[in-house]
Amino acid sequence: MAPITPIADFKKILQSEFELVRQFVTVLEREQDNLSQGKIDRLADFAEQKGALAAKLNELAEKRVELLCKQGFSYDKQGIESWCSKNSEMQDVPKLWSDILALAAEARELNRLNGDLIRIHMQHNSKALEILLGSNRSSLPLYGPDGQSTSTESRRINDAA
Q1: pTM
Q2: Which residue in 77, 49, 57 sits closest to 16, CA to CA?
Q3: Which positions ≥6 away from 70 have C-beta within 8 Å?
Q4: What is the C-alpha to C-alpha distance for residues 29 and 10, in angstroms, rounded to an integer?
């Protein structure tokens, strides 16, 4: 069996990162489908799945950074581009890195949209709760016999009788 080289390790790390980011996007898409359908009962499950994937992604990112630094490259975009230039025999690595960045951007956008959907559900639930508890009575418009809007503060029950 051939020894593992830093070049092969780097590619293996990127392949693993790509797969995990792809899985993360899939979880976000399923979460969005559930949110769009009003199925919020699985949010905790999705949060747990995303947390586990994020932890694995962080581990891989640390390994990638360590490997880059050990080879004398910076851990940022420029360092990865320099690594790719120096290791030109690994022609598929630049595309793999580009694909990871594209998936990560997709994940960020999905996560932002899911956050918006969660906020909408929370606002809806909050308003429904206010109505059920009666704390929102003063902002509900009521109409008098003449069809004009009246505030609930100036209106008493016996006024309507």
Answers
A1: 0.75
A2: 57
A3: 6
A4: 29
**Is residue 2 helix, strand or coil?**
coil
How many H helices and E strands in the chain?
5, 2
State pLDDT tens for residues 4-34: 577 888 999 999 999 999 999 999 999 999 9
Asked if residue 134 lies in contact with residue 140, where contact means CB atoms within 8 angstroms, the answer is: no
Residue type, 150: T
Residue 57 included in any domain: yes
CATH of the domain at 27: 1.20.58.300
DSSP state of 142: E
Cβ contact 25:103 at 8 Å: yes
